[in-house]
Amino acid sequence: MPRAFTPKVVTANALLEGDAIWLTEDNRWSRDIHEAELITDEAHGDLRLLEAQARVDEIAGAYLADAKAGPNGPEPTHFREEFRTRGPSNYAHGKQVEL
Amino acid sequence: MYKYNDFDEAFIRSRTAQFRGQVERRIDGSLTEDEFKPLRLMNGLYLQLHAYMLRVAIPYGTLNSGQMRQLAMIADRWDKGYGHFTTRQNIQYNWPKLQDVPDILDALADVEMHAIQTSGNTIRNVTADHFAGAAADEIEDPRPIAELLRQWSTDHPEFQFLPRKFKIAVTGAAEDRAVTKAHDIGLRMVRNDAGEPGFEVIVGGGLGRTPMVGKVIRNFLPKADLLPYCEAIVSVYNLLGRRDNKYKARIKITVHENGLEKIQELVEERFEAIRAGFTGHDQELLKDIEAAFAPPVFVTKSTDGYEAARLANPAFRSWTDTNLSDHRADGYAIVSISIKKHGATPGDASSDQMRAMADIAENYGHNELCISHEQNVILPHVHKSDLPAVYAALREADLATANIGLVSDIIACPGMDYCALATARSIPIAQEIATRFDELKIEHDIGQLKIKISGCINACGHHHVGHIGILGLDRAGVENYQITLGGDGTETTTIGERAGPGFSADEIVPAVERLLTGYLELRDDEDETFLQAYRRLGLEPFKAILYPSEDKANAA
């Protein structure tokens, strides 16, 4: 049996700053994962990824990352994706202070 | 130090201009990321977890004060006011913006620096003994050879698309401080029976997912044959190295799969074929480079003030005990500045600290600095009478930590705090270990110890050759840390043995503490280092300390 599809968000790095961004339902790039579109259908996910990848002058390296629904919107499920929402642990740099 | 000639200057400027155009075309969308990626990597620009990262080459780690000040200026103007010194003697900026990178490269070119070949499947920055030109145990300064190799390998048309990256390290000393046996080519200066200097050539060493100790391919290579011989090795590898599998593409695998003898035969054959083409121009060039590396004019003056300061100030005395090494000139010392303050990020220096080090080097150190692969900064030539002033200036800049070679002098890669390839974080583990042992106040009791931490199997943190190596992995979505023991990166290079199952992020620091307090019980006397005790006793007693409950379970 094929593995069940787990919910995803489309994420990438911003072209100029290089930081993590997420694709929203209304086709914006948000720096807050809570604003991302939580994708629960595999075919829709593939389509959204293709659309994201076409926006070459805005982003680099788009991919689908596992996420789950939370009280404020999508949340990461893996620690790597969690770090991307926050920034490094050794300094108060990145999203933990910029958002 | 080597000075750029007109050719070097024009080459660097044209590469920067070229990259400026490429960045413009990327930003306006005419280049896709797939098209741009190989171009940015050729210029040292990576895309990491939170931002771009620019890796700037510091050839064989050597810098002058002006260059260090420029690195500080770049950190302030285009980054977040700091830089990270790496295990390959380079500096990395963690937060540059894409549109600023061409300006950064121009600013680097202003002080004869660049980021070329700090990535990609090319010959990378040639690294060297960080005590080069100063070490008491040195046959010759290895940096002229390193510079010759740099000029030969930079933009070498045959070697821009090797099967995989290629790293060369060189040392002129008996004690190997350049980890030559863990490089694609390692060069150790030796003398033949006639007393002439030449090289023992080591090939096929490397860390990463398949760690290998390099093998001697030539016991003695005359100095004059160095370039054709290295070219022969790289061109044999270029043809024979595997391109079908990136994990089997390094020369260590080529040597392992084909056998040293076959590689040796092919290299000697190729060497004979190309040797005549080197008509002596390289040797003329080398003479000029050697002249540029003429040692500073050492002075003779009294060291009475130094001895008096040692007696008067215990903190200064402690610092001189750990952070100084023997210099070849009378009255001089090599100073290691620790970039490992307890609890700080290994290898990170603020722009203020960079400027302070530049000033100290200018005032007391013949204008010279060297980045070590252990992520510290070396002042190669300081007269002992100036050491009290150097120490005072370092204290002022919060750079006077007396811990070189001790528990808290930890190598750590950036790990998952920055690196897109990482599988776990390294920096917080290093910070916690250093903080913990500072609290315990036992690092001087423990003595010489090398802890090295990598945040993934690629081993930028050299964990395989740490006396205690720590490898961060992702085990079912949780950070997990594996310990290896007994590794050694010197002339007696040994790959560490895996101790057993990994530890969680919460368990790893207590595990290291258990291991080291256990070692204090196990050692013969104070003079037996951790590595010596490990070699005498083997893995078992240390394993029993690391996994106490398992021991009981087995006994039951």
Keywords:
heterodimer; A: 99 residues; alpha+beta; 3 helices; 5 strands; 29% strand; globular; B: 556 residues; Sulfite Reductase Hemoprotein, domain 2; Sulfite Reductase Hemoprotein, domain 1; six-stranded mixed beta sheet; five-stranded antiparallel beta sheet; 19 helices; 40% helix; 17% strand
What ranges of chain A have pLDDT less than 50 throughout 5 or more consecutive residues?
none
- Provide the CATH superfamily of the largest domain in chain B: Sulfite Reductase Hemoprotein, domain 1
Note the beta-strand portion of chain B. Answer: 15-25%
Distance between the termini of chain B: 66 Å
| DSSP strand tally of chain A | 5
Q: What is the CATH architecture annotation of the largest domain in chain B?
A: 2-Layer Sandwich
| Radius of gyration of chain B, in angstroms, nearest whole number | 23 Å
Question: Can you tell me about this structure?
Answer:
With 99 residues, chain A is an alpha+beta fold. Chain A has one domain (8-98). Chain A is 24% helix and 29% strand. Chain A contains 3 helices and 5 strands, in the order βββαββαα. Chain A has helices spanning 42-53, 79-86, 95-98, and strands at 8-14, 20-23, 29-30, 59-70, 73-76. Chain A has a 5-stranded antiparallel sheet, sandwiched between helices. The radius of gyration of chain A is 13 Å and the shape is globular. The mean pLDDT of chain A is 96. Chain B has 556 residues and is an alpha+beta fold. Chain B folds into 4 domains: 6-110, Sulfite Reductase Hemoprotein, domain 2 (Alpha-Beta Complex), CATH 3.90.480.20; 142-292, Sulfite Reductase Hemoprotein, domain 1 (2-Layer Sandwich), CATH 3.30.413.10; 304-396, Alpha-Beta Complex (Sulfite Reductase Hemoprotein, domain 2); 411-555, Sulfite Reductase Hemoprotein, domain 1, CATH 3.30.413. Chain B is built from 19 helices and 21 strands. Chain B has helices at residues 6-27, 33-42, 65-78, 101-110, 143-153, 226-240, 251-258, 260-275, 281-292, 304-312, 314-323, 351-364, 387-396, 427-440, 443-446, 505-522, 530-537, 539-546, 548-555; strands spanning 45-47, 52-56, 62-64, 82-85, 91-93, 127-128, 168-171, 185-191, 197-203, 215-222, 324-326, 332-337, 348-350, 368-371, 377-383, 411-412, 451-454, 468-475, 478-485, 497-498, 503-504. At the A-B interface, α2 of A face α14 of B.
